[in-house]
Each structure stands twice: as structure tokens, then as C-alpha cells.
Amino acid sequence: MAPGDSETPSRGKKNKRADSSGTTPPSSKKEVKRTKSEMEKLDLIEGKLEILVGIKEKVDKMSEVRAMEDTVMTEKFDDLKQSIEFLSKSLLEIKSELKETKKDITHLHGMKEDIIVLRNQNQKLVQRITYMEDYQRRDNIVITGLAEINGENCREKCSQLFKECFNVEAELTRAHRLGPASVKNRKMIVRFKYFKDKEMIMSRRRVLKEKHAGVYIDDDYSVETLRRRNSLRPVVNLLKPLDERTHLRGDKIWYKGRLYSHNNIIQLPIDPHQACTATQGDVTLFSGIYSRLSNLYPVELIVDDRKWSVV
Known about the structure:
Elements (H helix, E strand, L loop, with lengths): L2 H18 L5 H111 L3 E5 L9 H13 L5 E6 L10 E5 L2 H9 L4 H4 L4 E4 L3 H17 L7 E3 L2 E4 L2 E3 L17 E3 L2 E3 L13 E5 L2 E5 L1
Antiparallel strand pairs: 1-3, 1-4, 2-3, 5-6, 6-7, 8-9, 10-11
């Protein structure tokens, strides 16, 4: 037997023994190992897939939330845009109105300046007319408290009074009563032909207190001067206790040898609140619009380098 022939059967026997004993062939082990490895890989892939699915679900939810937020933001942006457009339109209208208002204010400023000029001119005219009217009345006197008799001759009655009280034979131009006849003992206005006769009588009028009590003689003034005099009477009453000689002279106060008008009345030693003409609630009325004690006194106000006359 050849050597090759004797070895082949022996190997076959060995293989048969191995198979009969139940041992897994090497090729099967490799397949099992490979299968196991693939199963582990599949499990790992499956786990990663589950993670990816979870991430996808979260991303989907986030996308939905983002889409909702985008929708809300878009709506808000649209509303904001409309609001801005409305405000811009309103702002343009307001600017236009302000421009027109500014024109009106400028026009009013011009009118106000014109009014101030006219007011100053009017005050000067009133002062001039008042002066002229007082000058025309300088030869007149007004007698108050003289008994009135029906059918009386006023000129003769006044001439008799002047001769009896002052020993003056004055030549009169005119004399008559003032006011309606229904008033008892009306005032009498008398006009002298010569101013010196009037001066003499006015200098002696204190004698009337002794011979004709209740009869008073005063100068004849215009309405404006009378108004100013009446506004100063409360001040004179306050000054009388300080100097008995204090009296009104025209539209001024004579006090201790000096004349005080509405312009310098503040220099007098009096309490302004005691010199008020009247009180109405919280409002105190002083001696007229020409008095520096009055809150109606015209003052000069400077605004934006422009002068304004304020009352």
C-alpha cells in the first residue's frame, strides 16, 4: 500500500469521530460570532434610531412652537405697522395744525402789539381830554347841600351866599342845578367870570362850616378826575390821623407838603391792604387801575427780549 493511500482513511475516521462527539465546527462558530456581533450592532442602531426619533419629535414640536411664534410675531408686527402708520398720519396732522396755530399766534402777537400801542394811545388821549375838560372847568365850582327852593334864581342865590360868607362880590357867568328835579337839594354848578374870584372863595371856604353847616364847595372836575379822586379817598382817610392837613388836590393827595399821585402812592406810610377800595371774596380791589397798589396797574413785562404792557 502506498503511503498516500494508507493516510486518507485515517483522516476520515477522525472527522467522523469529531462529528459523532457533538463538537461545533469552526465555521459555525464564526457564523455565530458574526451573527451575535451583527445583533449587537442592530441593537445599537435601534437605540440610536430611538434617540433620533425622540430628537425628531422634539424638533417637530419646536418647529410647531416656532411657527406659532412666527405667526404671532407676524400679527403683532402687522398691528405695530398699522399703529406706526396711524401715528405717523396723526403726527403729520398735528404738525400741520401746529403750523397753522403758530401762524395764528404770530398774527395774535402782532395784533397784541397793535392793541398795546392803541391802548397807550388811548390812555394818552384820555389824559389829554381829561386835562382839557378840567381846564375848561377851572372857572367852575360845585356847591353841595344848599337848600333848593322852587323857582329860585341860582345866580342871585350864589351871589348872596358868597357876599354873606366870604364878603366877595363875584361876577357869575352861569349857575344852575345838576340832575333831575325829583332829587332833593341837588348840587349846583357855578361858573365865575374871573378866575381870581373863584380862588378867593376857595381859599375861604372853611367859613362855611360855621355859617352854613352841611354846605360844601369844591372844584368842578371831569368824570375821569372824579373817578380817580374817589379811588384815593380811602387812602386820604388813612393818612388823616397822621396829618390832619391831608387832603385831595385835584387827582392827587397832599400829605405833609408833598403831592402823591397814583404813580407814587406806594411811597406813603400806609398798609396797602387797609387802603383797598373793596374786597370781593379772595379778590382785593385797590385804588384803581392807575395805582401801584392795584393788581390792575399796567406793568412792563419782557418775554423773549420783547416788551409787553400787562394789566
